[in-house]
Amino acid sequence: MTRVAFLGLGDIGSLIAAHLTRDPFELVVWNRTASKAESFAASHRARVASSPSDAVKNAEVVITCLPSSVEVEAILHGEAGMLESLAKGAVMIDCTSGDPPTSRSIAAELGGRGVEFIDAPVSGGTTAAKSGSLTVMWGGEVTVFERVRNVVEAFGKKIVHAGPVGAGDALKAVNNALLAVHILSTAEGLAVLVKAGVDPKVALDVINASSGRSNSSENLIPQRVLTRAFPRTFRLALLDKDIGIASVMADDLGVSTPIISLTAERFHSAREILGEDVDHVEAVKIIEQENGVEIK
Ligand code: NDP
C-alpha cells in the first residue's frame, strides 16, 4: 500500500482525491473547512487529518491542490504546517496551478530536508477529473516522478514531462491564458453577430466547422452560455490568477504579449465586478452587459 496525504478538497481536488481511495492507496485527507473533509470521508475510504502536519506525518506521497502557490506556502509554514512533519524520502506532488518561482523555492527548501517536489498542474476540468483522465503537465526530475507514477496515473491519462520544477506551472498558465483569450474573443465575435441579426446557434454551427473554432466555441459557449446554465466548475478568480501568472512570466522574460496583457486586465476587472465565486465562463456576461446583448 502507498500512504498518500491529500490536502485541498475543492472543486477539482475532491474529484482527484476520490481516485486514491482504493487499493493500492491508503488515503488521509485534510481540508481547511473540516466539514468538507468529513463529508468526503463519509462516502470514501479515507481518514480525516486534523491539520496539515497531522496529514503528512506518515505519508510517502503528499498531494496539494490549493488555489495558488501562496496557499501552498501557507500550509507548509503556517501553524500546524506540513514542513516539520514531512518524512525524509517523501515526495510532494503539487497539483495546484502554481507559479514557477514559488514552486522552485519550495522544491529547494524541501530538497534540503530530503523531501522531493514536483509541480503537476492538471487540465481537462471537472469532467476529466471525475473520469480519471486529466492531462498532467509536470516539472521535476524523472527519477522522482517514476517513484510516484502509479499515483499520478490513478487520476491522469495524458501525462507529460514539461521540464524542470516550475515548467508544469509555466505551461499551465499559458494554456489558461489561451483559454481566457478564446472565451473573450469568441464572446466578442458572437456579440457582433447577434447585433448583426445572426442567430448565435447558426453562427457557432458555422464557426465550429471552420477555422475560428476553439474549445470555447465548441463546448463552453454552447453548453453554458446559450443555455444560460453557467455551472460553477472552475472559478473565474482562479483563471484570473492563471492569466496573471502568464503575464508576469512574459514580463520577466521580456516577451511582448499585448493580447495576453489586455485579456488579463479584462479578467481582473470581471473578477472585481462579478466576485470570487462565479464560474470562469461568466466573464461573457461583461461583454453582454457592455453591449446590451444576450448570446442565446
Ligand atoms: P476551489 O476554489 O474549488 O478549492 C480550493 C481549495 O483550497 C479548497 O479545498 C479550499 O478550502 C482550499 N483553500 C483555499 N484557501 C486556503 C488556505 N488559505 N489555506 C488552506 N486551504 C485553502 O479550487 P479548485 O479545486 O477548482 O482548484 C484547485 C487548483 O486546481 C487551482 O490551482 C486551480 O487553478 C486548479 N485547477 C482547477 C480546475 C477546475 O476545473 N476547477 C481545472 C484545472 C486546474 P475550503 O474548502 O476551506 O475553502
Write the layout of secondary structure elements.
Layout: E1 2-7, H1 13-18, E2 25-30, H2 34-43, E3 47-48, H3 52-56, E4 61-64, H4 69-77, E5 91-94, H5 100-111, E6 116-119, E7 122-123, H6 125-131, E8 134-139, H7 142-153, E9 156-163, H8 167-195, H9 200-207, H10 215-225, H11 236-253, H12 258-274, H13 284-291
Parallel strand pairs: 1-2, 1-4, 2-3, 4-5, 5-6, 8-9
Antiparallel strand pairs: 7-8
The structure holds NADPH dihydro-nicotinamide-adenine-dinucleotide phosphate.
Explain this structure to me?
This protein has 296 residues and is of the alpha/beta class. Helices cover 51% and strands 14% of the residues. It has helices at 13-18, 34-43, 52-56, 69-77, 100-111, 125-131, 142-153, 167-195, 200-207, 215-225, 236-253, 258-274, 284-291; strands spanning 2-7, 25-30, 47-48, 61-64, 91-94, 116-119, 122-123, 134-139, 156-163. The strands form 2 sheets. It has a 6-stranded parallel β-sheet with strand order 3-2-1-4-5-6, sandwiched between helices. Strands 7-8-9 form a 3-stranded mixed β-sheet. The longest helix has 29 residues, at 167-195. The protein is globular, with a radius of gyration of 20 Å. NADPH dihydro-nicotinamide-adenine-dinucleotide phosphate (NDP) binds at residues 8-13, 31-33, 36, 65-67, 71, 74-75, 96-97, 122-123, 125-126, 233-235, 238.
Helix/strand structural class: alpha/beta
How many DSSP H or I helices?
A: 13
Give start-end ranges of low-pLDDT stretches.
none
The outline comes out as globular
**How many strands in all?**
9
Please write the string of helix (H) and strand (E) elements: EHEHEHEHEHEEHEHEHHHHHH
End-to-end separation in angstroms reads 51 Å
Radius of gyration: 20 Å
Helical residues, percent: 40-55%
Query: Widest sheet: strand order?
Result: 3-2-1-4-5-6
Mean pLDDT: 98
Biggest sheet: strands, sense, closure?
6 strands, parallel
Enumerate the distinct ligands.
NADPH dihydro-nicotinamide-adenine-dinucleotide phosphate
Strand content bin: 5-15%
